[in-house]
Write a structure and sequence with these properties.
By secondary structure, this protein is mainly α. The protein has a domain of 110 residues. The chain contains 10 helices and no strands. Helix 3 crosses helix 6, helix 4 packs across helix 6 and helix 5 packs across helix 6.
Length: 179
């Protein structure tokens, strides 16, 4: 069964599972705790308005905020099925899903608060780049994954949004991958 206590001892394995070095994880964790605590004071894992003070169950699989953050990061990095991810952490898929949704919401708040969410459009990226000093621009990471977007109905807008690709799949691979 995975947890933060056992994984932190093996730095190589920790980075392989979380996608972050232990130092980067701890840095992110400081910010994550703030967002997670605020979210816990607002709502329950079942997405209900919280009426009483939050507390941890004695038998909870995710005992600490370190465990919660590692649980979410390992899911995002390794992209397992929820069933496989739950089994690795010693829980059922029905338990894993709400914990993932809750943890993802807290992580998104953390990244948003620290202005670390990726730019989704080229205009957003251009605005962000212009606002940064040149030294920081050189340190930025590029996510080069092309994501499909809804096609605009206006022909002029279609031209502006055209990426150069004609289809999502080539003719050769269409019979195998794109059904």
């Amino acid at each position: 069964m995975m947890n933060y206590q056992t994984l932190q001892k093996n730095r190589r394995q920790f980075k392989s599972i979380s996608g972050l070095s232990h130092e980067d994880f701890l840095s992110l964790h400081k910010e994550f705790v703030v967002a997670y605590s605020a979210l816990r004071s607002e709502e329950t894992i079942a997405k209900r308005v919280r009426k009483r003070k939050p507390s941890n169950r004695v038998d909870a699989v995710l005992q600490t905020t370190h465990d919660v953050l590692l649980f979410v990061l390992s899911y995002l990095k390794n992209n397992p099925t929820q069933e496989a991810h739950a089994a690795a952490w010693g829980m059922y898929q029905g338990q894993a899903h709400p914990h993932l949704q809750y943890g993802l919401k807290a992580l998104r708040r953390t990244l948003m608060h620290n202005d670390m969410l990726p730019a989704r459009t080229r205009l957003d990226l251009a605005e962000r780049l212009e606002a940064l000093p040149i030294e920081q621009r050189k340190k930025m990471r590029l996510d080069a994954t092309e994501r499909p977007i809804e096609r605009p109905s206006n022909p002029q807008e279609q031209k502006e949004m055209y990426s150069g690709k004609k289809k999502a799949c080539s003719k050769e691979s269409a019979s195998q991958r794109c059904r």
